[in-house]
């Protein structure tokens, strides 16, 4: 039986990744934009609080179960920044190009380029669900100054996986999903839903 699910996100890159992960296992994904759900506020300093706020917002406005993702890149030499502020690192309006330029500039004088992607997923059965289902994932890499690759989104052209010898924008989508913070978190979440 297919299960309808609202994806509480307006990020097209995330939507593609979730569709590839969830549709083969019987979920019918609907981005919140299909229901004219506007972007939720993300006022909190933790990923999990923002993900919960996004999930509840979409569930409230659609009356359907909702899945939210809050994620970002955490750079060790920058004390974990941009972290939960990754989407707006270079200010409003959100821009991947400006975010990447700022990240490269901020790291230019640093020897340690290590970083990780982090993702928290929150699933709510309805807006006031007292037992949100939560899972997370982490993916280690390093930031490189010169962009490589055209797949993915966000910081992918500058996020190198040394073990694979590729940036995450050079990986085929299924390979990224097999390794990524989001793929890890989603597999853990699905286990909890069974
Ligand atoms: O796999 C990834 N590959 C590259 N970049 C990534 C990835 N995962 C998160 N990121 C970056 C993009 C954005 O700068 C921030 C997420 O911010 P975040 O608020 O969770 O998402 P968003 O505002 O783009 O869409 P929405 O809140 O509607 O889901 O981290
Ligand atoms: Mg956001």
Automatic annotation (TrEMBL):
Cofactor binding note from Swiss-Prot or TrEMBL: Binds 1 Mg(2+) ion per subunit.
SUPFAM superfamilies on file: ITPase-like (SSF52972)
Annotated Gene Ontology cellular component terms: cytosol
Entry binding sites for Mg(2+): 41, 70
Subunit composition and interactions: Homodimer.
Task performed by this protein: Pyrophosphatase that catalyzes the hydrolysis of nucleoside triphosphates to their monophosphate derivatives, with a high preference for the non-canonical purine nucleotides XTP (xanthosine triphosphate), dITP (deoxyinosine triphosphate) and ITP. Seems to function as a house-cleaning enzyme that removes non-canonical purine nucleotides from the nucleotide pool, thus preventing their incorporation into DNA/RNA and avoiding chromosomal lesions.
Identification of the protein by name: dITP/XTP pyrophosphatase
Species of origin: Telluria aromaticivorans
Organism placement in taxonomy: Bacteria, Pseudomonadati, Pseudomonadota, Betaproteobacteria, Burkholderiales
UniProt gene name: rdgB
């Amino acid at each position: 039986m297919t299960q309808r699910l609202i994806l509480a996100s307006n990020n097209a890159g995330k939507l593609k990744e979730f569709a590839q992960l969830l549709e083969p296992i019987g979920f019918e994904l609907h981005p919140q934009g299909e229901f004219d759900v506007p972007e939720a506020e993300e006022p909190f300093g933790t990923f999990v609080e923002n993900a919960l706020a996004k999930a509840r917002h979409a569930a409230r406005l659609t009356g359907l179960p909702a899945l939210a993702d809050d994620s970002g890149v955490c750079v060790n030499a920058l004390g974990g920044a941009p972290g939960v502020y990754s989407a707006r690192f270079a200010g409003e309006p959100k821009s991947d190009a400006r975010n990447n330029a700022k990240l490269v500039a901020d790291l230019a004088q640093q020897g340690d380029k290590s970083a990780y992607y982090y993702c928290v997923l929150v699933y709510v059965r309805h807006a006031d669900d007292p037992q949100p289902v939560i899972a997370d994932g982490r993916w280690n890499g390093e930031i490189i100054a010169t962009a490589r690759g055209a797949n993915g989104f966000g910081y992918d052209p500058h996020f190198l996986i040394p073990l694979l010898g590729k940036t995450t924008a050079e990986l085929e989508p299924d390979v990224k999903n097999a390794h990524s913070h989001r793929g890890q978190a989603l597999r853990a979440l699905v286990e909890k839903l069974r």
